[in-house]
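Sample A.
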Amino acid sequence: MATATITSFPAIGTAEITNTGEVVISEIGNSSSSWIQIYNNGSVSNFTISGEIIGAPVIGNNGEIAINTYQNSGTPQVTDVSYIIQNGQITPLPHFDTFGTQIASINNNGQIAGTLTADSSTTVNQSDANLFNASFTWQNNSFSPLLSSVTFGGKNYSLEVLAGNGAGDLTGFAGTMLGTPSYLHAFLLKNGISTDLGRTGAQAVSVSPTAINAQDVIVGGESTAVGAIQSIPFVWRNGIMSALPTISPTDQIAFASGINDLGIIVGTDAASTAGPYTAVIWVNGSLINLNSLLPANSGWVLTSATGINDSNQIVGNGTYNGSAATFELTLPIITVPAAMAVAQFQSGSTITSTAILDSAANVNANIDGLEAIATAGLLGSVSLTDGGTPTLSVSATQLASDAMALKDIAGSYSLTVTGVAAANATSDAAVANVGKIQISDSAINVSANLDSLESLAAVGKIGSIALTDSFIPTLTISAAQLSSDAAALRDISGYYSLAEAAPSTSATISGASSGLGTTVTFSGTASQYTISPSGDHASFTITGNGLTDSVSNVQALRFSDHTLIVAAQPGSNMVTTGNITELYGAVFGRLPDVPGLSYYQQELAANPSLTLTSLAENFLQSPEYMNNSAHNYAQNATGDTQFITDLYSNLLHRAPASGDAAWYETNVVAPIVGSTTPGTAAYTAALLLAHATVVTDFSASAEFLGNVQVTTQHPADASHWLVLI
């Protein structure tokens, strides 16, 4: 934590400080005459008054300073006299009848509030006797009584004002310490209505407020026995009285002396009446020993804090190099970890702006809670302790809902935004400090916004694009977008395929290098086009409707009446996509899907040594195959016969000829299974290999290709759907 700056003053007394930084120190303990010194930017003003000064100076927001004294002589004998110091002049407050005055507050309109006093030796006019210890206001040379009494326990008690704020809201106490029960109640007096502040526990017998800020937060001390044998500091806010923590739970003397409009509370803590006394502050319910904020080897021991202004300048008493002294201390920025700030706010103890000092990870974890603090207007700066430019990750929802907290983060940092809708990508990426966005949306929405996503991908703003569709989605794009939006397409994670619209003029069309396959869509029917392979097993020319397109690396062609699968000629020495097409027919009894065919095309390119038999084993172990109950073949000759019969039906759409199934059982299955025992793991593995070998043999069937291949003799129709290149 940063250290405070501290200044000492030669005068020793009770200190207060104005919002303009004037330090007012009044003498303590002189019964005949007393002095007041006012320090302002290096200059000192001295005042001497008769009588003994009582309590701390009272500060107004317009430069007024009130001093209360006890007088032991005079005619008439008024025991308490108050003085106002303003513009270098000191003036006694007129007395009312023979009552003395104790000023407690000066509001922003210059109105003075306090209590009328008299001792047992003072003669009071009978007509004014009911004003004994009554509250008053004084303005324009005129006294006015306030609420003269409050009622509780069936009795009326005079309300003695002890403090006020600039708006004229007042606090004080009423009651008696005599009789049973004995209890001094504390009150808030606002707009002529008094509110009992209550107490923190049933043991309290005297609640003494000392200060109230602009938000009507009241602080003071609560005594648990007659004579203040034990005093507990308290804060009252929004109808709730709460005890403030002490340095040790067993400390007997602790009280809050002041609070500024920022909500920082100052006071004193001691283990007992014998001390030692320690100057403390409370920030959002947490206690800080002021001595912990001093520079090393400062020579200071701070024993009490008596006042604080809205610039967080604190005055009080202590010792400097062993001698008694009065101090002025300017608080550094008080910071807390993010989790503590959130906990303080959720507990209701946050009354002052909270500054955060924590790691990016911890701020990230508490960003929603920090937003709640910011919304309440109580979040100060948020400083990250990480080096360099730390990164926070928020969802797209949080980017909007936590905007105030994110704005309060100081210094350089980067945001990664997750779950961004494609349509919102541009606006979310433009938010301050956003480094990367992660798109999460459907294929149709990504397709509709692909051009704008490309603009972001080109400048490195996109971290990833995740498609939320079930199974393997298809993106629909134009042929031009395949190259113009290439960066965005590369950022798409997971499996997807492309549906690419052929241009309206002759063009070179290439499938995507990313994703799982490309389907090119042409206008018109399949019969309007002629397909001519280029001979490289990868490309071809398609002519029709007045166009001639050179096409490569595509897996399907879509026309208005048919969709054709494009595959390389089946190989005898090397597996091709043509062989994969045959496996789809033999094992699944269906056309290959474009993503699946593209997947195996990429596998073959990466692993050219893959055998057709090993691929057949993969097909036979796939969920699509194994989850079909019809494929639960018995591990015997009957099961093998059914397996072979099903292959004939799937691939050739007919039953095996007489003796065909038996031939495969005798010449393929039996030699591989050998002497292994049905039901064992060895038999199951051998049977899988035997069935895969049968599938491999079937997949080379010329009959199958003749049934499905598009040729001059067999144009595209419902049965002829395979284009071999």
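Sample B, a different protein:
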Amino acid sequence: MTVTEGVKTAVRSRATSIASPPDPSSSPRPTATHVVPVIIPAERPALIRYGVAVGVTLLALGVTLPIASLLQRVILIIFWPAVIGSAWFGGAGPGVVASVLSIALANYFLLGTPGELTFAPADLLPLGVFLFASTCVALLTDATRGARRVAARAAAQNAEFAHELEMQAIELEQQLEESQALSEELEQTAEENARLHHETMSARLGAEQSARVADRLFALTARLSAAATPAAVAEAVLAEARATFGAECGRMSLLQDDGSTAHLLAQFGYPDDPAWRTYAVSTVGPSRLAVETGRGVFIESNADARERFPAEASALTRAGVETAVMLPIADGRVIALMSLSWSTRHPLPTEEREFMESFTSQCGQALGRAMATEAEHRARELAEEANRAKTQFLATMSHELRTPLNAISGYAELLSLGLRGPTTPEQQEDLARIMRSQRHLLSVINDILNFARLEAGHVEYHVTNVPLAMLLGDLESLIRPQLAAKQLEFVCDPVPNGVAAQADVEKVRQVLLNLLANAVKFTAPGGRIQVSSGHDDARVHIRVSDTGIGIPLDRRGAIFEPFVQLHRTLAQPAEGTGLGLAISRDLARGMRGELSVESDPGVGSTFTLTLQRAETQG
């Protein structure tokens, strides 16, 4: 029997004992569930109770009258049931009324002279006895009646109490069932809480581990951010690995292109052995396995080394290494190897191994960047060295060429002036061609020299506040022969007063001369060249426009590159070296300005020189 069933039985027994006292003769014992409802007689109205008493007494008289001769001295015997019935039905009052009425009726109809209400002395005693006895019987009957009503009320209360106990027992049974269900639920909740606690602890440990990993990776990132070379990256990685994993020795080597050899970048805990500065990567063993698989190789003990890598096991034993790790460092491909070792057994759980591989993954990115940066620096140094050599060569060659060109110009002028004797018209024409060719070649050499100086950074700028009118004054005189030769119209718009630019006058004149020379070169005879200007709060704009052949949209960016000539062909070679616009743009930028172009093929082009506006003083 369970505890719940025992409690249920005890409650039922208690309810039964209260509702129905034990009765040895009865079997089985009634329970509260089977208690018969007790009917408690209701108190009737007085008129009915006293009316019944009078009626019963008259009935007794009616019964006695026919048999009065037979009853003789027990003439009142029939009235006894009337008295008792009246008392039982109506209580003591109706019983007494029935007694008195019985004596009066018996005396009037049965005793003495019929029809007269007189009391003979001989009848007083029996009538008095009857009155006394009937009164006592009425009182006793009323008492019995009252006791019966009290008992009925008590029985009803007991039945009600038994029913309440039964209901409480049922409620208690339900509560016990609910308690049992709640207990089972609490047990399940406890189990669930235990599981959740275990998961929470696991998650907490995992979070702590993740936080530790994140902290170490953050520290590694901070170290790597300051490392600019592969050697600096290796030193930062090994220092962080030593602090993170507690390794006693460590080495990081950079693989050569074919992966057969490795070059030592940094190490700690090992003696400085020249044999390890550049060494061959074995065709088997942990190093080769790490390179081929791209995954870390973990050797937990000497026994593990003898089983997996017997060729390397003896070397590890001689070096006093018990646990070793070989980690590949990759940036798209394996580019380096990092080894860590311990002289005692070092546990390598899965989390530790995954952390090590994440560690080396971040190292691979940093090492790749450092290698790319170093390669870029080497390439830049080589390019700068080649550029310096080119610039020096151009400067030297230009200087060597200018000397004989100047001599050619001088001797041609002497012959043209007749200092060496008279010359014929044909000879004068030939001398003019020689001098034009000399000037053209000298212009080309000067362009090359200027470009070489710009690239080498040897050009000095004397930037001052220059009025715009001074920059654009007398431009026509610089190109008047060329304009006349092609019958070109030249227009220079009026310059606003009080506008100045921050510029080097000589460099601006050189830029404008290059732009005007190009405009003359690419504008057909009878065309038009115009110089205009504009300004805003911060800049000054000088525009050179022409009605020439124009520049295609896809070639506008190329015209500012050195040695580019858009309209050079074998049939129609263009004069010059293609350096004029490149030099002009560099000169503009050297003055914190810019040179740009707008053009429509077949319509013309507009070149705009933009300079910083200078503050003018009134």
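Observation for Sample B: Confidence is low (pLDDT under 50) at residues 14-22, 24-35, 569-574.
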